Amino acid sequence: MMVGSAPATKFEILTKELASKIDTIITNNENDSSKLVGILLEIQDIIPKQYIPMEVAAYVSEKMDIHLSRVYDVISFYAALSASPRAEYVVQMCDSVVCKVTGNNSLKDALQEYIGAGVNEVSADGKFALEYTPCFGACDIAPAIRVNGKVYGNLTSNDKIKAVLDRCK
Amino acid sequence: MEKTVSFITQNFGKYDPTSIDSYLDIGGFSGLKKALGMSSDGIIELVRSTGMKGRGGAAYDTGRKWSQAASVKGDKKVVICNADEGEPCTFKDRAIMENDPFALIEGILIAGYTVGAQDGYIYIREEYRHLQKIVSAAVKQAKDRGYLGQNILGTGFNFEIHMYSGAGAYVCGEGSTLIESIEGKSGRPRIKPPFIKECGLFQRPTLVNNVETLVVATMVLTHGVEGYVCHGTERSIGTKLISLAGNVNKPGSYEIPFGLTLREIIYDIGGGIPQGHELQFFQLGGASGSIGSASLVDTPYTYEDLSKVGLTVGSGGILVVDDRTRVIDFVQSIQDFFIHESCGKCTPCREGNRQIDKIIGRFVVGAPRPDDLQTAERFANIMSNCAFCGLGETAQSVLLSAIRQFPEAFEVQGR
Ligand SMILES: Cc1cc2nc3c(=O)[nH]c(=O)nc-3n(C[C@H](O)[C@H](O)[C@H](O)COP(=O)(O)O)c2cc1C
Ligand code: SF4
Ligand code: FES
Q1: For A139, which of A98, B171, B234, B330 could close a Cys bridge (C-beta 3.0–4.6 Å)?
Q2: Are A93 and A73 in the same domain?
Q3: B239-322 domain in CATH 3.40.640.10?
Q4: What's residue A125's pLDDT?
């Protein structure tokens, strides 16, 4: 990988400040390799655009003495971890059956129009990423979405959808 | 007439889930106290007498599982609480953790004491981040008050609880995969043997139980078995938490006695189908469960009656679907889910799901090839028989039950 050979960009994201926050997260988790999944989730939370950049993965690998390939195995396996930049607000639309039978199709249309991006795309201003996601256990208030992890349900009208997204503006 | 009951859920709304004092005020931890005064065999006997089956989906006899876990040799045993709840149309464990996190902690302690474990792990899915906070806070309070740690309540029993988060992978609900995930790895199931009861998390003997299973144990220890066994039928004793959703007027998580009919559940508890639509079918037990057509609506919700008509209790999910959804589109949606969630370790599931998806896609647009139905069915049967783990084994329940009950959905349109 390019980590070592691209020193010019190496500290673009991994600032001293971020590195020290990552250190704290690792220390709080006792530098325990069994906590790798949780550590990566915590780190992703504090990185703008909610992903694990390559230099961060390399940094964690070195700090925790876990092979980089294992760090990437974990990042690529789990849907909640992303190796590529997302956005300030990640809007996840459930596409599992309960949301489907309760009308998530019109929800999808409304979201795309409002955000100005299709599914698996990022809006032009980099503010919103729209993603499909499997059931997140909010089926009693289907159709539902998650915005940065927070659940909003019963989104059966354009007004309700707009109200949720307006809060992010 | 009120059809729901309240045994497992009896603490809901009675105390403040953020405060151990308020839990103690309603008699919290008296089940644990009782358990600590009993022998392991005594507790197992009590659990056995409820006849209860595990609530994670596989319906394994809980008394039997605990007795096996207790008899395994080893002094560093582990109890894992499976709070991954990834099955679509399942949110009853969420209701428990939101309303009664301390009863869950108490259940883990009781299980740990019974089987001789020193460590408990709670694995909560990433999608339930807000619950991770609630449960972590409860664990911390329990520790501060001496319900966790060394020499609990002066009995010499030592026990710790550790919190782990999932990261968006349905397959991690499978016991050995969950263990891989807690060990900090990607989620791919382990080969058996060795069985996790003998060699599981960090190579230690491991008991895995669902959230609801553990809370039933707490309630039975606290309040005695009578309040539980007075419900249900002869062979499906007690009560069950269901997650009712889809095209019903009052979706939600409800506690019911076994033996209500699906009609009572959908119409009396769920308030029927919205806007005058007709019931078309229902799916029981989440995405991995079979569907049943409306003609089966008078089937009692018990293990034995459901199994007679090819259905299962599974995770307790009850998804109601009315006439607005085409059966074939429903099958495709389920198929999409399993393609997304297959871990890719074994060929029958990794490739089978894809090939079946292509065929279903042709049915969806009304242009199947002549042998498509037979091929899909054959692949589905291969998956059920040869997949490496439960995910691949059950992924085709919907397709196979749809072919049986809605053959017209697989006919070439306009012929
Ligand atoms: C693919 C797959 C996913 C599963 N997901 C869950 C789950 O989210 N929660 C759960 O409790 N059990 C789940 N199970 C069942 C568990 O493997 C296990 O049987 C259960 O947690 C045991 O607890 P119980 O005996 O109390 O039911 C899953 C099984 C498979 C094969
Ligand atoms: S059945 Fe599917 S999920 Fe299970 S091991 Fe095989 S590929 Fe992975
Ligand atoms: S199916 Fe959409 S939240 Fe469960």
Answers
A1: A98
A2: no
A3: no
A4: 93
Is the confidence at residue A6, as pLDDT, over 70? no
- Per DSSP, B127 falls in state G
Report the distance separating Cα B414 and Cα B295, nearest Å: 26
Which ligand is located closest to the Cα atom of residue B53?
A: 1
Choose among B167, B360, B412: nearest CA to A40: B167
**Token code pair at residue B275:** 């806007």
Residues A55 and A103 in one domain: no
pLDDT for res B176 = 98
Q: Look at residue A43 and tell me if it is in a domain.
A: yes
- Which string of DSSP letters, residue by residue, matches B45-72? HHHHHTT-B-SSSS--BHHHHHHHHHHS
Residue A11 belongs to some domain of the structure:
no
Residue-level pLDDT at B188: 97
Order across the sheet with B317-322: list the strands.
B252-257, B239-246, B317-322, B279-284, B291-293
Same domain, A67 and A120: no
pLDDT at B94: 98
C-alpha B149 – ligand 2 centre gap (Å): 38
User: For residue A7, is it within any domain?
Assistant: no
Q: What percent of chain A has pLDDT over 90?
A: 88
Decide whether any atom of ligand 2 lies within 6 Å of the B350 Cβ.
Answer: yes
Ligand number, closest to the Cα atom of B347? 2
* pLDDT reported for residue B75: 87
CA atoms within 13 A on the CB side of A52: 29
- Residue among B174, B189, B183 nearest B203 (CA): B183
Within an 8 Å CB–CB cutoff, is residue A87 touching chain B?
Answer: no
CATH 3.40.640.10 for the B20-229 domain, yes or no: no
Given A73, A135, A149, which is nearest B88 (Cβ)? Answer: A135
Domain of A51 in residue numbering reads as 16-77
A contacts of B88 (beta carbons < 8 Å): 96-98, 134-135, 139
Within a domain: residue A84? no
Ligand 2 geometric centre to CA of A10 (Å): 38
Q: Which one of B90, B169, B341 has the shortest CB-CB distance to A137?
A: B90
Euclidean distance between CA atoms B133 and A3, whole angstroms? 35
Domain-wise residue ranges, chain B: 20-229, 239-322, 327-410
Chain A partners of B128 at a C-beta cutoff of 8 Å?
137
User: Number of folded domains in chain A?
Assistant: 2
Summary mean pLDDT of chain A:
92
- Averages of pLDDT over runs of 10 residues in chain B (415 residues) are 92 98 98 98 98 97 98 96 98 98 98 98 98 98 98 97 97 98 97 97 98 98 97 97 98 98 98 97 98 98 98 98 97 98 98 98 96 97 97 98 96 61
Instruction: Give pLDDT, residue B163.
Output: 97
* The CATH fold of domain B327-410: de novo design (two linked rop proteins) (1.20.1440)
- A52 contacts chain B (CB < 8 A): no
* CB distance B292 to ligand 2 below 6 Å: no
pLDDT in tens, A41-92: 999 999 999 999 999 999 999 999 999 999 999 999 999 999 999 999 999 9
Structure tokens that stand for B33 in this block:
């106290």
pLDDT at B67: 98
